[in-house]
Amino acid sequence: MASRGGPRAAGTDGSDFQHRERVASHYQMSVALKSEIKKLIYTHVGIWLLLMAQMCVGHLKLLPHDQVAMPYQWEYPYLLSILPSLLGLLSFPRNNISYLVLSMISTGLFSVAPLIYGAMEMFPMAQQLYRHGKAYRFIFGFSAVSVMYLVVLVAAQVHGWQLYYSKKLLDSWFTSTQEKKKK
Fold first, then answer.
1. CB within 8 A of 36, min separation 6: which ones?
2. Mean pLDDT lowest for which of 23-27, 31-35, 127-131, 147-151?
3. CB distance 178 to 67 below 8 Å
4. Are 103 and 84 in contact (CB under 8 A)?
5. DSSP letters of 76-98?
6. If residue 142 lies in a helix (H) or strand (E), which one and from where to where?
7. What stretches pass through the bilayer (predicted)?
8. Residue 125's closest CA among 114, 117, 137, 116?
9. Which helix (H) or strand (E) holds 18?
């Protein structure tokens, strides 16, 4: 090749090495998707901590029930949703496909299913609030059902995107694995 200020090899302008300096696209995609999934996991941990705080305040009676309502039934199984996030984070360092698949399956079971159940559990109370304007549970002066539907909406989006990016990451890792087998 060429050295700085020294003679160049015959027949080259010194730029023929650039093709070797490009990172394969599936590696670039893997890094980008890991970054997005980490952001979603940290957002999920924030939601999880808020629900945990509400449960602790409700059960330990740190504040009156007119300020922070007792948790809904769907919130208890949703607490297990931290496990899929941890599995997802554990899959990243060595591109562990089995951990990522377990994370995706358990996200459906421990995250998405309780959210669906929660939307159904709170629907009669939301309907009563909408039709009659009466709410019986409150969180800092706001209707508990409105606040919790907002939480369900945000959490559903977080988990939906997490599953989507995890699937794309899994495809990226399979591409990498297939190329290694060809060599």
1. 161, 165
2. 23-27
3. no
4. yes
5. HHHGGGHHHHHHHHHHTTTT-HH
6. strand 142-143
7. 40-62, 99-118, 138-158
8. 137
9. none
Give the pLDDT score at 67: 85
Q: What percentage of residues in the chain have a pLDDT greater than 70?
A: 82
Q: What are the domain boundaries of the chain?
A: 37-180
Q: What is the distance between the alpha carbons of residues 178 and 24, in angstroms, rounded to a whole number? A: 13
Q: In whole angstroms, how large is the CA radius of gyration of the chain?
A: 25
Write the DSSP assignment of 9-22 as a string of letters: PTT--S-TTGGGGS
Q: How many Å separate Cα 61 from the centre of its chain? A: 31
Closest of 78, 72, 87, 110 to residue 37, by C-alpha? 87
> Which of 124, 114, 105 lies closest to 152, judged by CA?
114
3-class secondary-structure state, position 4: coil
What's the whole-model pTM score? 0.80
Residues 69, 75: Cα–Cα separation, whole Å: 12
The H-assigned helical ranges of 17-143 are 25-60, 75-78, 82-91, 97-107, 113-132
Alpha carbon of 82 to those of 6, 75, 85, 111: distances in Å? 58, 12, 5, 8
Q: Burial of 5 by CB count in 10 Å (0-12 exposed, 13-18 middle, 19+ buried)?
A: exposed
Give the type of residue at 122: M
